[in-house]
Amino acid sequence: MTVNDILPIVLYILGTILLITLIVLTVKLIITMNKIDKIVDNITVKVKTLDGAFEVISLVTGKFTSLTDRIVDIISLFIDKLFKRKDDKNE
What we know:
The chain is about 95% helix and about 0% strand. It is mainly alpha-helical.
């Protein structure tokens, strides 16, 4: 046997090993991608449940801000009236 006879056989064996390795890695990748897909679906469901809670928090925060703005406006008008009366009396 010469090198010309042995080299193609070695290349065929290495090519077969490479093909089998790529098939195994592809199957493992598909299994991993399925697991990742399940995890992402689970996270999506949990985030959707949190969206409702965040909407409630946003609504409460908006109402609280509106209420505090009204209170601040009333207090500032009261203080403004007090100072205007004192200025009017001094003149």
